């Protein structure tokens, strides 16, 4: 009818659970491991032995969180066929389980699987749960499992199931046993993106401003990697193979050049942490947990 506007139905994101995503393979070596470490800012003190072992030497140490970027499918949620408005997409959390120590070289493959989608309602968005297994191509053994939760802020109202009530443990009481300060670099997001996450939100000032940020922001997984380095250094006594799990919720953004403080509480193998930006007194990682076998 002339003059009548018909609303376009929201894409049914429930269909993501049945979607088969193509596998991704990657052959990597020490150069990739070094680049990942540099993307976290490791090496900013070129005389620090604890940092240097990740970026030079005959046997490179490999930080476990590199598993989050190896054989990565990149920004798969930006595929136009999925119907996700990626400009309004927010990563809410990541959980990484390390099954076996990550080697400094090899071939790995993985594929993304959407495990659940919940509809928060129109104007409230949709929650997308996904996971990715990292498989050693030579042994077919699972090296790690990465689970993620994302909020598609403009994709709610498609008639899906409502999310369950989230249960969150209270934040740790008392002062942290370890406070680990880390100065990020102005160019850190530009280096980190070379490990696979090329989202322009982290590199293009115009895209960042359109998304509501002052300038490009640091990757959430980069902040989680810094927290991992802090826990390996201060709790696991430098033993990268001791870290078995790490997870956190993203509660704020980090602008490259800001100073991070990783606050750590640990009792036995259980580690809890959070991360704040000192300059703005803003908590950016919350509800952090890790399992570390060396104490």
From TrEMBL:
Gene3D superfamilies assigned to the protein according to its UniProt record, in alphabetical order: Hotdog Thioesterase
Annotated Peroxisomal multifunctional enzyme type 2-like N-terminal domain residues: 28-143
InterPro entries: HotDog_dom_sf, MaoC-like_dom, MFE-2_N
Annotated ranges, domain MaoC-like: 184-280
PANTHER family per the UniProt record, alphabetical: PEROXISOMAL MULTIFUNCTIONAL ENZYME TYPE 2, PEROXISOMAL MULTIFUNCTIONAL ENZYME TYPE 2-RELATED
Protein name: Acyl dehydratase
Taxonomic lineage from the root: Bacteria, Pseudomonadati, Pseudomonadota, Betaproteobacteria, Burkholderiales
């Amino acid at each position: 009818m002339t003059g009548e506007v018909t609303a376009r139905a929201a894409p049914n994101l429930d269909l993501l659970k049945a979607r088969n995503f193509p596998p991704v393979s990657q052959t990597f070596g020490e150069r990739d491991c070094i680049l990942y470490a540099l993307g976290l800012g490791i090496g900013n003190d070129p005389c620090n032995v604890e940092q240097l072992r990740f970026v030079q030497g005959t046997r490179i140490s490999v930080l476990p969180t590199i598993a989050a970027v190896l054989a990565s499918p990149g920004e798969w949620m930006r595929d136009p066929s999925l119907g996700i408005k990626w400009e309004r997409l927010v990563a809410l959390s990541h959980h990484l389980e390390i099954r076996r120590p990550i080697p400094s070289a090899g071939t790995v493959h993985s594929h993304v699987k959407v495990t659940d989608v919940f509809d928060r309602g129109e104007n409230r968005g949709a929650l997308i749960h996904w996971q990715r297994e990292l498989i050693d191509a030579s042994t077919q053994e699972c090296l790690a499992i990465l689970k993620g939760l994302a909020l598609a802020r403009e994709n709610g109202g498609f008639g899906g199931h409502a999310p369950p009530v989230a249960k969150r443990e209270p934040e740790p009481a008392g002062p942290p046993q370890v406070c680990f300060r880390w100065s990020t670099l102005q160019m850190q997001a530009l280096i980190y993106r070379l490990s696979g996450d090329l989202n322009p939100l982290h590199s293009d000032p115009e895209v960042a401003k359109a998304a509501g940020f002052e300038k490009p922001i640091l990757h959430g997984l980069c902040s989680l990697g810094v927290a991992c380095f802090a826990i390996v250094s201060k709790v696991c006594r430098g033993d990268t193979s001791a870290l078995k799990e790490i997870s956190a919720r993203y509660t704020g953004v980090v602008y490259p050049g800001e100073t991070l403080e990783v606050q750590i509480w640990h009792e036995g193998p259980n580690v809890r942490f959070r991360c704040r930006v000192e300059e703005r007194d803003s908590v950016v990682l919350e509800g952090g947990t890790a399992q570390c076998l060396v104490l």
